[in-house]
Amino acid sequence: MDYGLFATFLAACFAAGATGAVFKPGAWYDSLAKPSWTPPNWLFPVAWTTLYLSMSFAAMRVAPLPGSGQGLAFWALQIALNTLWTPVFFGLRRMRDGFGVLVLLWLAVAATAVSFFRLDLIAGLLMLPYVAWVSVAGALNFTVWRMNPEVRPIG
Fold first, then answer.
1. Distance in angstroms (rounded) separating the CA atoms of residues 123 and 134
2. Confidence grade of residue 151 (pLDDT, cut at 50, 70, 90)
């Protein structure tokens, strides 16, 4: 295990996750109509910590391999989009735009997973829970947006 590579990828993940400390869901999100299948609030930090660890480990496995450039480029794109979603959705309260970011994020995560599978089976498998979570997040974002048509964005 290359602890330096792992720590670098994990630092990128926790930088993305730090947006959640700056743009907290809070009372605004609590007041929104949500579907019955909305995950409980305690699950989000548990899920994201687990996902950040697994995607960092996957990237660490792939990084030293020949031909990893495209997969790592997709990894960089997905973490950038991951970072963008929270300020768009919670900070600006732009649910439609947040959904657009999530569509792009899903595509980037799926492309990362496919690229990683081509290089390392374990790395590809480690990305599958992230694909699933972003799928649920996209469905939740879309449903909350549609259930709350009166909500206006900030700015």
1. 17
2. confident
pLDDT digit string (tens) for 118-145? Answer: 999 999 999 999 999 999 999 999 999 9
Q: Residue for token digits 């929104």?
A: 32
Query: 139: which residues sit within 8 A by CB, 6+ positions away?
Result: none
CA nearest neighbour of 64 among 113, 105, 8, 125: 8
Look up the pTM and report it: 0.94
b/e per residue 97-132 (b: at least 16 CB within 10 A): bbbebbebbbebbbbbbebbbbbbeebbebbbebee
